[in-house]
Amino acid sequence: MRRVQGRERKDPVDKRTIAEPYKIKVVEPLRATTRDYRAEKIREAGYNTFLLRSEDVYIDLLTDSGTSAMSDNQWAGMMLGDEAYAGSRNFYHLEAAVQEIYGFRYVVPTHQGRAAEHITSQLRIKPGQYVPMNMYFTTTREHVELAHGIFYDCIIDEAHDPANPHPFKGNVDLAKLDRLVQEKGRDAIAYLSLAPCVNMAGGQPFSMGNLRQVAAWARRHGIPIIFDATRAVENAYFIQQREPGYAGKPVREILREMMSYGEGCTMSSKKDNLVNIGGFIATNNEEFFVQAKEMVVVYEGLHTYGGLAGRDMEAIARGIYEMVDDAYIASRVRQVEYLGSRLREAGIPIVEPVGGHAVFVDAKRFLSHLPQEEFPAQALAAALYVDSGVRGMERGIVSAGRDPVTGEHRRPKLELVRLTIPRRVYTNLHMDVVAESCIALYGERRAIRGLKMVYEPKKLRFFQARFEPIVP
Ligand SMILES: Cc1ncc(COP(=O)(O)O)c(C=O)c1O
Prior knowledge:
InterPro entries: ArAA_b-elim_lyase/Thr_aldolase, Beta-eliminating_lyase, PyrdxlP-dep_Trfase, PyrdxlP-dep_Trfase_major, PyrdxlP-dep_Trfase_small, Tyr_phenol_ly. With about 475 residues, this protein is an alpha/beta fold. It has helices spanning about 35-45, 70-80, 90-100, 115-125, 140-145, 175-185, 210-220, 230-240, 250-260, 285-300, 310-325, 325-345, 365, 375-390, 395-400, 430-445; strands spanning about 1-5, 5-10, 60, 105-110, 130-135, 150-155, 190-195, 225-230, 265-270, 280-285, 360, 390, 395, 415-420, 450-455, 465-470. Helix 14 crosses helix 16. Pyridoxal-5'-phosphate binds near residues 140, 195, 199, 268 and 270.
């Protein structure tokens, strides 16, 4: 409350627009193209938005991975890169930032997240062991399977229902964990892989309450928790906003508490850490650290650079401090919600609640005339590009790939188009352009045809698969 001319009233500042906590110093021009041009480009790209050239894209919502705008402080840090082969000063800055903000003692840099996943999976999984995860992520599961591990989904059922408004759809179902231990025994489990703000579920967070229960369960069974910490700060923000007892608590403290329940993490710095390249393994387990250091030399580079330049490590170190600024993270997640609210108001089916990094359009309901075998999410992403030059990506049956045992398509319940918002890159007017294009397409959705796959890579097929429209 504020006293105004002797009267007390609710502070009007509470209700005002909150702007981005930064101003723009450098701009990059965008190129608009015609509809005919885009129709030709998507045909050339085999109806796969991953195969478009970025110069042909107007607003790029393919991914939030490596697409962040860095701050002046990060760019200044790039100039202070110590490009020594061994013992670069920037490595020690990175190590200190991870220790202070994530709370893990040992740090091994890698060139990006999947390299950290590769090393972790190879070292921590014995052939035939299970790795329970709160839903899957494409590269994480791929590395588990390459290490002859078996993925086991332990996320709550609500996460598979796009319309379910559960505030913490990233939560783990403890009954599913119990069932696995009862059926297979404790030794059949390598570790628990927990992802904050679960990407494939729509960027959905887990609650601290659930995490505490899972950690107690894991301790009881002697099973370590290794986080995929890629979007942990966004998860911490949702805990601050939604979970009793955390309102007003700095995101930095919430993140630290979350990480305290794990033995370590793999990390794709290309997301939360606000950089264009990088990743790391962090752990409190000294034995694993020593093994990871030995292995990183084979695949990435010396353990004090892990495939990164000194300047990259400096940018990550500085990004780690910037990401836990409460004003920044609030503005980032609110922008995602802004786009979600525009689509929701227009009646477009989206995954609810809107997650931390992307709005996921429910292609199953949007294109209810197309069966899943005709790749509705792939078709919708292609149609959106043709309509407006906005690039999203498929997260459905194509991304799910084939079952390694039966060779059949995996059929996920979620058939989604992901509109992923890069950090600090676009304004809300760009979001309006995206929303208008989705609304226009929704009006003419019956005209969108299904696709057939004409080229299918064996691994992570969504990146390079090619399609053609089904001619009636
Ligand atoms: C949840 C999650 N884990 C791991 C990765 C892999 O990280 P990278 O792309 O840096 O290899 C990603 C990337 O999109 C991700 O979203």
